[in-house]
Write a structure and sequence with these properties.
- It is built from 13 helices and twelve strands.
- The protein is of the alpha/beta class.
- Strands 6-7-8-3-9-10-12-11 form an eight-stranded mixed β-sheet, sandwiched between helices. A four-stranded antiparallel β-sheet has the order 2-1-4-5, covered by helices on one side.
- The longest helix is centred in the middle third of the chain and has 18 residues.
- The relative contact order is 0.16.
Amino acid sequence: MKIDTLIGDAPAAAGGLAASAATQPPLLEVDGLAVEFRTRSGTVHALQDVGFTVGKGEMVGVVGESGSGKSVMCYALLGILDAAGRITAGRASFGGLDLVRAAEADLEAIRGRELAMIFQSPRTALNPIRRVGRQIEDVLLRHTATTRAAARARAIECLAQVRIPDPARRADAYPFELSGGQCQRVMIALALACDPALLIADEPTTGLDVTTQAAIMDLVRELAARRGMACILITHDLGLAADYCDRIVVMHAGHVVESAPTRALFASPRHPYTAKLIASTPHTAPDLRGLASIPGNLPDLRRRDLPPCRFSERCDRAVRACATAVGWRAVGPRHGVRCENPL
């Protein structure tokens, strides 16, 4: 999708449920989340003071450069951080359960059932020596009161929902017998098998052609609207986020720098990083000369002297206050920005 299209059209992410999300208690509320990784070369401050909400039936896009902390944030919520990682601060309330302080047994009970994730690399996430249908059956048998025969039928149905041809035969295939795109669709089917309340989709259309991307995202949107399922869409594709998300959360170097309804964000970005991110995305310009690059690189997150605004060293609007303390400010309805000199 061309970004310019969004300014005139409202995103159709989750029907009427999304419209009422702002008036209901959030399904997920993250506040002050901080994550660090201990490495041989120093401590990586991967996330700091991350906060956002997701309402029932709402689709929230999380965008930003590679290394901004999008996937790490979701791994922290699921309790599946690498052994070197740990949550050092914050809370994450999901349906009344604090995911940060919950016991592992409680997290295991909701992972795959109430809270599911589509991983970006399906060949890594899927068990290479177990048939794909059996992997979906395993989730159903673990989290629902069903028989093996019923689980088999449901697994085939899930594969059919994500447009895998001849799903009964493909259910007996191993991941290495499927293409990358088919493995991605199996990953999506596995995540949706138990009708989760919240689906985290980490680049869910990786390896799929444009037509199949649209079919998969239309399916996710349809399920969200019909079942009241919320979704966090992690993506580098701003056009995809513009098409399907109700709100956008922008991340840079472990910080949430802006959060806004989709139309407001693309029509009037307030953080300098957001504006540059949009400007660097293909739109109606006739050739590549219309694209603008973002100068500099992400800061080294092992530094002990990281500034309060981790974009300040790349920002042409930086002021003296950016080096001391940067606060969150409201700039519109449900529109907030972490910046001392917003646009």
